[in-house]
Amino acid sequence: MAAAASVTSLADEVNCPICQGTLREPVTIDCGHNFCHGCLTRYCEIPGGDPEEPPTCPLCKEPFRPGDFRPNWQLASVVDNIERLKLVSLPDSAEEDICQEHGEKIYFFCENDEMQLCVVCREAKEHRAHTVRFLEDAARPYREQIQKCLSCLRKEREEIQWIQSRENQRIQVLLTQVATKRQKVVTEFAHLSQFLEEQKSILLAQLETLDGDILKQQEEFDFLVTGEIYRFSTLIAELEEKNEKPARELLTDIRSTLIRCESRKCRKPEAVSAELGQRIRDVPQHALPLQRKMKMFLEKICFELDYEPAHISLDPQTSHPKLLLSEDHQQARFSYKWQNSPENPQRFDRATCVLAHGGFTGGRHTWVVSVELAHGGSCTVGLVSEDVRRKGELRLRPEEGVWALRLAWGFASALGSFPTRLALEEHPRKVRVSLDYEVGWVAFTNAATHEPIYTFTAFFTGKVFPFFGLWGRGSSFSLSS
């Protein structure tokens, strides 16, 4: 390897300054610099400049006589020796720079044929009329194109890496949500299991008590019935015996005997008392707490598996001066009288709107807006991006970072790129707004009937805030989770 490096270093010392290749038929000019004879001849033939002026050395710019080239035989011998050493000591990869046809070094490039040429190839008939450049000159525009391609590819790679990072973050958020919901399911089912065991014990104890009371009443019934049967059997036996006697004996005390039998009232005992029967019929009522608990459990587990309740409050720093906020910032009422609100960049000055505190940068959240509208009033609920326009006219549409639903007197509209009037079975007075940041959903449902109203799809990249607008004297809204 050291020998190859030495040969390469020597070869660099005997390169032609014009073609950057190994000197071929080296000649020396007046200033002492050496060039290939062919390169210097072509250099002198290049048109331009004053034809009366002698050409100048490509290196030092000293003038020289075009016809006064002195062959440098000693340098030519050195070059030949170096070439032989290169063939012996340089690795096979160095042979790639040699023309396979002529054995000369390649240092030209034909742009017409896209071929690499040696000196002999360059002088061949088929390439004389072609555009031929030195390798580095020919490579320069291609290097520039490669740099442009590299710049575009690197930019696209960065975009893909950013998407990968963003999606990985979304996946981690979703995994965290799933883990949280898994824990909630385990906890809620554990509570339900404990409650069911308690209810099971209570119901079984009540049924056990009923079973004992039924058996007790059965014993009392059997005792009474047995006594009655015995007494009736005794009277029957007495009358049968009386009936078998002769007339004289039959008539003896016959009236008292008949009166005693006729006046005997049959008591008809009941096996199950009315009170016990009512208690048996009331058994399903004891399961009503279980029924209510199961309904609450199903509603709660379905809700918690869906969205996280958002405990939001209105931000007075963003509220339009015509909105009156409650002290707990959970309610707002429209007023034509302007409030004394200090001006700040966050406050809406044209649209009678207000935002919630905090905002969201991920997750699944839900909140409920209860709306009370006067005749001609309207309320807008939804979500906005952090950079939504606060000053001047606010266009309520997704392109402006607003995903909202407008409730007016008797109708509702989805405020898309073009407002869409919605056909609803029931005009909602309570609207549930649900956000899925990672998936990109803003869904509206009737909180009372659970009827879907409208769903926006979006791509969120920054913080978003719950958004509320109000218009009309006597119109108001309030928040709940």
UniProtKB/TrEMBL annotation:
GO cellular component, one term: cytoplasm
Entries under InterPro entries matching the protein: B30.2/SPRY, B30.2/SPRY_sf, Butyrophylin_SPRY, ConA-like_dom_sf, PRY, SPRY_dom, TRIM/RBCC, TRIM10_RING-HC
SMART domains: BBOX, PRY, RING, SPRY
B box-type domain ranges (all copies): 94-135
UniProt entry tagged with the keyword Zinc: yes
Domain of life assignment: Eukaryota
Name of the protein in its database record: Tripartite motif-containing protein 10
Organism, scientific name: Orycteropus afer afer
